[in-house]
What we know:
The chain has 8 helices and 10 strands. By secondary structure, it is an alpha+beta fold. The chain has 2 domains: about 100 residues, no CATH class; about 130 residues, no CATH class. A hairpin with a 4-residue loop joins strand 9 and strand 10. This is AKP13 protein.
Amino acid sequence: GDSVITVELTEEDKVEDDVVFYLVFTGSTVQHCTSTRKINPGSLETISPGHDCCETVKVALCASREGHPVLVVAEESFQFVQDEAYDAAQFLATCAGNQQALNFTRFLDRSRPPAADVDFLDEKVALAFRHLKLPAEWNVLGADQSLTENIPRETLMHFAVRLGLLRLTWFLLQQPGGRGALSIHNNEGATPVSLALERGYQKLHQLLTEEEAKEPDSWSTLSHTVHSGDYSVKHHRGLDVYMLTAEA
């Protein structure tokens, strides 16, 4: 989800300015309807929805005009795929309290990927996390809430801070257990806050210590979502398009 989609209209579909185009994505359990913006008379732009599973869905391009019935202009298939970022987010979400798995992730730190790769990883994994269906009881510290803060252990927050993943750290901070993870020491005696300071991650340290710290620049800062029962409406400010998602 959250990729830019461009729709090229054929000559006969180029119509008057008062016609509004929508894309309707119909999956097995969820349906999305997105508004579009006109780039020029023959091209439209919108944002792809974050879907609930990997499958091929039907996409209909619909045209609406006041006082007239909605027309289906064209239909096509669209495939949602499971990529490495989705796999990584699922792995991390599942291993929230698993010490063996979290210690295993530390080998990534030794390889020290280039800054551009870290930024790409941060954006993709944070985005995938936002589209995961996390259980209601999910917690950054794992399922075993009987563990006290005094027990040294590795957390997802240590992982995100160690690699300098700003957006993922922000996402985890908003989740249950996110703030609590900041004061937990690992076996080396480091908290996520002290790790950020030790590594010279100034923006990250600011994010963890300032009460009014703002979300790092990413796609999510450009969008605002309102949930209501089985429906959600998302406004993408960058393109000024809206997306209605409904569970079928």
